[in-house]
Specification:
The chain is an alpha+beta fold. It has two domains: 116 residues, 4-Layer Sandwich (Deoxyribonuclease I, Chain A), CATH 3.60.10.10; 60 residues. Helices cover 28% and strands 15% of the residues. Strands 1-2-4-3 form a four-stranded mixed beta sheet, with helices on one face. Helix 1 packs across helix 2. The chain is elongated, with a radius of gyration of 29 Å. The protein starts with a strand and ends in a 14-residue tail after the last strand. The relative contact order is 0.11.
Length: 203
């Protein structure tokens, strides 16, 4: 989530007073326009708005990230104003991968703000390219459904008197389904043409 909050802390007030149903949020970052001694050693005061910001981050299970670079994030040409740290980042709490970020003042070019970066590791994922299927309205589908229905009708629930017997009956029925699926289905390779909605326009 990228945030810009103006000098009146409009975005922070909005986030504080609004309920969100956002899960698996990795990062909150942006220009928060808050000077605070918590992240700027040149500033001597603590802002109550920072407490609101920390509460917002905590609601998303995010923690304040201390940059590995002890440098400022905003640089002003006006000599009457001091450079400061107002660009911040909050990362997933207790994450071994997302635990720090970097500040790059040398990347800012004509901007008065330094760039903030964080490395997000992407794990390798195996994508299964084959699956088993039964063609719709085929003889195999009819045989599969008949086998399942016949097996279901044979289940004698009158003999089930306890949890163990119930689990045994369910397990036997599940095994019949598995066996029938392997018997009547076939293995196919998944491609872009595997979906019935795929047509020349999709290409």
């Amino acid at each position: 989530m990228n945030i810009y909050s103006d000098m009146s802390y409009t975005a922070i007030k909005y986030l504080k007073n609004t309920e969100f149903n956002i899960r698996n949020l990795l990062i909150i970052t942006g220009d928060f326009n808050i000077c605070d001694s918590l992240w700027d050693l040149s500033f001597s005061h603590h802002s109550s708005t920072s407490d609101d910001l920390f509460a917002i981050a905590d609601s998303f299970d995010l923690c304040f990230s201390y940059s590995s670079d002890l440098v400022l994030t905003r640089y002003l040409d006006n000599s009457n104003n001091l450079n400061s740290v107002i660009d911040l980042m909050f990362l997933q709490c207790d994450s071994p991968e997302l635990n720090t970020h970097h500040i790059h003042p040398d990347w800012r070019c004509l901007s008065d703000h330094a760039s903030l970066t964080v490395i997000i590791s992407i794990a390798e994922e195996h994508v299964e390219m084959n699956k088993r299927t039964i063609a719709k309205n085929s003889d195999e589908e009819a045989d599969f459904m008949n086998k399942i229905l016949a097996s279901f009708l044979k289940v004698n629930v009158l003999t089930v008197s306890n949890i163990d017997e119930l689990e045994d009956a369910v397990s036997k029925f599940a095994n019949i389904i598995d066996y029938s699926w392997l018997k009547y289905s076939k293995s196919v390779r998944i491609t872009k043409h595997s979906k019935s909605w795929w047509n020349d326009k999709c290409s």
